[in-house]
Design brief:
This protein has 766 residues and is of the alpha/beta class. The protein contains 19 helices and 42 strands. It binds acetamide.
């Protein structure tokens, strides 16, 4: 008999506490009840998968299992309707409803049981995960288990921003397919933003003819002439309505709902370029590759609402989702304040403030959606101007939006920055991907508990679930979108699906290597930089000490000093390693004896121990720290700089200047493509003393004595990275902090440090 979930959970935990030794199923997200049983059985290519005759949903779930086994293990099983038989995998309609399911594996076979189509699908997913607990191809033994499972939250989401950078239909499908493997069920699809309009709207073709294409920012892109047009090459794209229908159906087959987002009244630069009459000011001349918050707002004319009604009408025809997202975030009101027509309209409507006008705007749009049987969802700013209780609020500026919303009777979804903003880099490693500078590691994402403690039990019913967001300003390629998502999205999935008592970091980390192997077996990208070992050295006497970093919280570092590849039996790294120069250290991270990612080879020499990448340096402040990619070369690998764009200034902490007489600094230039309004005036530089400016190095602090000055003249001629070299006054020895700043007159381009090397006397050959 099926137990009520919470009782079942308690009894399962008690069972484990009572000394059940078998390891938990290596399933992510963790199921509610996971009881190891005696026995088990072998799945081979002769194992049939059987579903009740005529049951389309059970057939689909059975086919999903067969497809996943084939893709991961190369096992081709036959799927057929029929009566239960020993040794088979059976799909069966039983008690668990909706997304809930039971899964039993024993000597006589495996049974997936649910009355719900989604439940059968998720049961298939879990059974596939049991069959891929260990890597390998071909037949597999599955240990006996009884699993009972159901989700904690109804909304288990990822947001994909296809506006800042466009992704192909194939990529979006693959992204959806992968979400389904983690029992995520909602794709919030950000289709409109300042930088691009990505959805074909039949009535307004210029939205995509004009609004879907742009020249990327910066001189490198401006100089990249497309021979077909004789003009700078544009990037972008859009989804035709046919493609959208295909993607929506593909998602539905995987029990994923797509919630489209059409941004308003702000983040509307692209549609206003396409149809200037929609705007509230002098129209912008062209689509733009800038990031940040643009000033352009839709106006509040009746014609504009007619446009929005038309657009939403086509959106509703394409997307069957109950919810339609209308954005509502970051609409700076300057253009409404200075526009006489908008002000006259406010008077006529007796609306006292621009914030209230936004409330009126969103409420009008909500009426349109409600009249078509849909519900409005928006970012938490929609609360500010007042909105009907029927609107759902997505809390992104922390969790206050969710708390206020639930207390006012709105449904809400927790999607707070920075923890669930997967545009934050996941590691401090210099080869980490571009993104927001503040690191949001796997463990931080995992440890997030979405239910606000400030809500009482009634208010808690308004919390629909949890969602992580992939904003793609700094994800130029599809691979990067996938890498920034994984493995963190697996942690989000567990938070969204698994009951509170089943969430345990150590246990998750134990299940992670199997999850990584599954992804590898399917050819799915996983960001491994955070799981790899890297080194920071510093000189000590004639030798060095080396600190090993990486896989924090997930694994342990093992290393060798004899050039051999590390194994799980190699010495465990605990303390900084003292070593002579010229040594090679090889290191790798393991969990429970299993390697997490590739190994690293670290050469310890006079240069490497005195070199720091920008990501190894400390930014002087943390106002708006980004890990940015150079804009050149247009094609191929580009340098990445960690930089606080409000205060480009870096500190090399504890640099040892003993015996150092020269310094080498690789520098690059970034286009200043940030819409930050008047805040740009807060960015201050010391004035240059030569026409092209210089890099200044100070010791002790950023107010300390200048110990090196490197003119930038040479570097201005290059679009990529330039290595500058010059004298440094090392007489003060060390250790001491070095501060790096640039003198310049304007913010554009903005100079950035790529890496710094202090050159010791014996190493002048460089
Ligand atoms: C947002 O990050 N502007 C919702």
């Amino acid at each position: 008999m099926r137990l009520p979930l919470l009782i079942a959970l308690a009894s399962s935990l008690a069972g484990l506490a009572a000394g059940a030794q078998a390891a938990p199923a290596r399933i992510i997200p963790a199921p509610v009840v996971d009881t190891p049983l005696e026995g088990g059985y072998q799945v081979t290519s002769r194992t049939p998968i059987i579903y009740p005759p005529g049951d389309k949903d059970a057939q689909a779930a059975a086919q999903r299992l067969a497809e996943l086994l084939d893709r991961s293990r190369g096992l081709k099983l036959s799927v057929r309707p029929g009566r239960p038989q020993a040794g088979a995998i059976l799909f069966k309609r039983g008690e668990p409803t909706g997304e809930a399911y039971e899964l039993d594996v024993g000597a006589s076979g495996a049974v997936v049981n649910s009355s719900g189509a989604a439940g059968l699908f998720y049961g298939a997913t879990s059974l596939w995960q049991l069959a891929t607990e260990s890597p390998g191809k071909g037949p597999v033994s599955i240990a006996g288990r009884h699993i009972e499972d159901a989700p904690r939250f109804a909304w288990r989401g990822l947001m994909l921003d296809s506006a800042r950078h466009f992704q192909s239909v194939e990529f979006v499908k693959g992204f959806i397919d992968r979400m389904a493997m983690s029992k995520l069920n909602t794709l919030h699809w950000h289709l409109v933003d300042d930088q691009g309009w990505r959805l074909e709207i039949k009535k307004y073709p210029r939205l995509t003819e004009v609004g879907a294409w742009r020249v990327p920012a910066g001189p490198a892109a401006a100089a990249d002439i497309d021979p077909a047009t004789g003009k700078p090459r544009v990037i972008g794209g859009y989804y035709t309505q046919g493609q959208v229908r295909e993607i929506v159906a593909y998602a539905a087959a995987r029990h994923i709902t797509i919630v489209p987002e059409i941004e308003m009244p702000g983040h509307a630069h692209a549609p206003i370029v396409a149809y200037p009459e929609l705007g509230s000011s002098t129209p912008p001349p062209a689509t733009s590759g800038d990031w940040g918050v643009f000033p352009y707002l839709y106006n509040v004319d009746e014609k504009t609402f007619a446009f929005l009604d038309d657009v939403l009408g086509e959106v509703i025809d394409l997307f069957p989702s109950r919810y339609i997202h209308v954005g509502g975030d970051e609409a700076v009101k300057e253009q409404w304040k200075s526009n006489p027509t908008v002000q006259a309209r406010m008077k006529e409507l007796h609306i006292a403030s621009e914030t209230a006008l936004q409330g009126w705007f969103i409420s009008r749009v909500e009426q349109t959606l409600n009249a078509r049987g849909r519900r409005l969802i928006g970012w938490d700013e929609i609360l500010e101007g007042g909105v009907a209780q029927s609107a759902t609020v997505m809390s992104w500026r922390g969790i206050d939006g969710a708390i206020i919303a639930a207390k006012l009777g709105h449904d809400t979804i927790l999607s707070p920055a920075p923890t669930l903003y997967l545009n934050h880099r996941q590691t401090t490693a210099p080869d980490g991907l571009p993104g927001r500078g503040q690191v949001v590691g796997l463990r931080e994402v995992y440890d997030y508990e979405p239910m606000p403690t400030a809500l009482n039990p009634d208010e808690r019913h308004h919390v629909l679930g949890v969602q992580a967001n992939l904003w793609t300003e700094h994800m130029r390629t599809e691979d990067r979108v996938a890498l920034m998502a994984y493995p963190r999205a697996a942690a989000v999935a567990e938070t969204a699906w698994s009951q509170v008592g089943r969430k345990d970091w150590k246990d998750f980390a134990d299940r992670l290597p199997a999850e990584l192997e599954r992804s590898r077996s399917l050819g799915q990208p996983v960001d491994e930089t955070a799981l790899q070992v890297r080194a920071l050295g510093r000189p000590v006497g004639q030798g060095a000490t080396v600190i090993l970093l990486g896989a924090e919280d997930v694994g342990e570092i093992r290393y060798t000093r004899d050039g051999s590849a590390p194994t799980a039996m190699s010495p465990l790294y605990r303390d900084p390693i003292s070593t002579p120069l010229g040594a090679t250290i090889r290191a790798e991270a393991f969990r429970n004896g299993q390697a997490l990612a590739g190994g690293s080879t670290i050469k310890v020499d006079a240069r490497s121990i005195r070199t720091r990448a920008s990501q190894d340096l400390k930014t002087c402040r943390e106002d708006l720290v980004l890990n940015l990619e150079d804009d050149a070369p247009v094609r191929g690998e580009r340098a990445r700089f960690l930089i606080d764009i409000m205060n480009p200034c870096w500190i090399y902490e504890g640099a040892d200047l003993s015996g150092v007489s020269q310094i080498e600094v690789a520098v690059g230039q970034l286009p200043f493509n940030f819409q930050i309004g008047n805040d740009v005036e807060k960015i201050k530089f010391r004035p240059p003393t030569t026409p092209d400016g210089e890099l200044e190095v100070r010791q002790g602090s950023c107010e300390g004595a200048v110990v090196a000055t490197l003119p930038l003249a040479l570097a201005t001629k290059s679009q990529g990275v330039t290595v500058l070299r010059g004298q440094i006054d090392g007489s003060a020895g060390g250790p001491r902090d070095l501060c790096f700043t640039f003198t310049q007159k304007t913010v554009d381009p903005m100079w950035a440090v790529d890496r710094v090397t202090l050159i010791a006397g014996a190493d002048h050959g460089g």
